[in-house]
Amino acid sequence: MTRSLSGFLRSGLTVAVAALAFAGTAHADRLKDIQSRGTLVCATLSGSEPLAFQDPATRQYVGFDVDTCAAVAKHLGVKMEHKPVTVEARIPELGLGRVDLVAAALGYTKERAEQIAFTSSHYQIPLKIMVATNSGITKFADLAGKKISANKGSTPELYTRRAIPAAEVVTFQDSPTAFLALSQGKAQGFAIAQASGVRFVNESGGKFKFLDETLAYEATALGVKKGEPELLAAVNKALAEMEASGELDAMWTKWYGPQTKYNIPRDKKLTPISAL
Fold first, then answer.
1. Measured between alpha carbons, how far is 123 from 107 in angstroms, rounded to an integer?
2. What topology is assigned to 30-124+220-265 in CATH?
3. Locate the Solute-binding protein family 3/N-terminal domain: which residues (predicted)?
């Protein structure tokens, strides 16, 4: 009985290993799978304007990331199949093979690069310092000895400590609370990504502004499952074609350009991850 059970377990293990080997082989050629099925399953966030959000009139998902997914799919010669995901799920969905590509405000970090493969960075958001317009503060040096608020654990906090070491960085659990500290005079500066901070400036009636200087640029890219070199190369080729043709610039102008409430220039063009 024992011998029979052991044999059964060995057989089961053999089948499982074979299944994993087969799955690995299949995933190693995901580009061919995409071409065969005729669709690129691309994940974006679902409520992050202007990257990916539902148009209130049509209820369709629109935004810069959605347009990027559609353009990459077109360059691969297939149709886009859009899948909304949460911030927490975007990397696991790639790992589980449920999506082919992630375009979801995916900032490049070395830690994330250990889990997924990054394409070239197709845009970089400036990290800025916001101050009261009537504060007399016009440059980073004016913040020496003053307090700068930031979202705890955020990249603006990290780069503020590096760029303005003479200032005291005070952190909060979220950006609205950090902005509240600035508006109540408990801090004289507020560090935040420009795209996220625009609404605070726009809704302040001119009371707050960004300083002209930039703390750093946060590189953002698309995510591909590790072990898919053909797909990674094909997406990078598509992005390079989109850069050369002006598609990336046109999409950026549509969602972030001077005719939008963001008015953020695309200072950084397509950049290989190895060059960051």
1. 10
2. D-Maltodextrin-Binding Protein; domain 2 (3.40.190)
3. 39-259
Rounded to whole angstroms, how far apart are CA atoms 219 and 82? Answer: 23
- Read out DSSP for 222-262? EEE-TT-HHHHHHHHHHHHHHHHHTHHHHHHHHHHSTTSSS
pLDDT tens figures, 99-123: 999 999 888 888 889 999 999 999 9
pLDDT of amino acid 18: 42
pTM of the model: 0.78
| β partners of residue 84 | 44
Type of residue found at 96: L
Task: For 149-204, write each residue's pLDDT tens digit.
Answer: 998 888 899 899 999 999 999 999 888 899 999 999 999 999 999 988 998 999 99
DSSP class of 64: H
Looking at domain 126-217, what is its CATH homologous superfamily? Periplasmic binding protein-like II (3.40.190.10)
